[in-house]
Amino acid sequence: MTQTQGRNQCLSAEIPELSKCSVLMRERCRVEETIYNMQQTGPENLQVISDFDMTLTRFAYKGKRVPTTHNILDNRLLIDENCTKKIKKLLNTYYPIEIDARLSTEEKLPLMVEWWTKVHKLLMEQKIRKDLLAQAVRESPSKLREGYKMFFDHLAEQNVPLLIFSAGIGDVLEEVIRQNHVFHPNVNIISNYMDFDHTGVLQAFKGQLIHTFNKREGALAHAAHLTELKGRQNVLLLGDSLGDLTMADGVSNVQNTLTIGFLNDQVEERKELFLNSFDIVLVKDETLEIPNAILKNIFRTPRCSKRT
Ligand code: C5P
Ligand code: MG
Description:
Elements (H helix, E strand, L loop, with lengths): L2 H12 L8 E3 L2 H14 L4 E5 L9 E2 L2 E2 L3 H4 L8 H18 L6 H21 L7 H7 L8 H10 L4 E8 H10 L7 E6 L1 E3 L5 E4 L9 H9 L10 E6 L16 E8 L3 H11 L2 E4 L5 H11 L9
Helix pairs in contact: 1-2, 2-11, 4-5, 6-8, 7-11
The chain binds cytidine-5'-monophosphate and magnesium ion.
């Protein structure tokens, strides 16, 4: 038996969750080797970069779609019926484009800018009040994935930085994790933040627009500020879109990267694309069981090295 085979057998026994039929891997050996390397260098060398909507939040619950941070704003407290209709129409037009396996990222890019720009303009016209956001989040059926508490708490306990990189709305995202009691000090967020005037009314969105397919630019622009991430050479990346794969582009000196993709929708059409792009693909898995199992393994004291 080679050293690598020995290690991998050991890891398969340690993370039985990876054998579930909803877990797909193109190169199982590479995955196991990467986890092994991450385990050897421990939590002090790890950083986690995750998308938010449909990655940390559920895609669906009891047969109904769970709202994204944009759709949480669909509450009469914040927007009127006419605006709801317009935003829904835009969603029905552009979301199918976002997830269309036949279109390239280059083809999708201008259309995504169009979608986000139109929706943000509509939201600004509604004069949304900052002081009502928390209530709208409380009243929404928004849901983090099962296992979220263990995920956030474990990372905080181990002092592992968690960068949440979202093309959603940062103010809403913050409120979701705050209300779920997991907005720990190790969490950093890059997202589209609302700009309120002195009376607390939405007047614009801050900074460069982030949409699903320009996260690379956002990652590079923000990298310099996130100094606490420097020197952490192992990256665990979670996403639900191919655009999420560029979220780690601002990290320098990466030694090991493990990418996990949640394949929520258009499963058969996108399976191959996802398999060719993410190290691990989770098919219609509404939980954080696999990331949690991998983290648990990385966080325990290395003990496999002598068994090879
Ligand atoms: O956190 P994440 O980067 O996933 O947030 C972006 C998601 O929000 C996209 O996948 C998109 O489907 C969704 N979105 C939405 N309504 C909009 C714009 C984007 O639900 N107006
Ligand atoms: Mg997402």
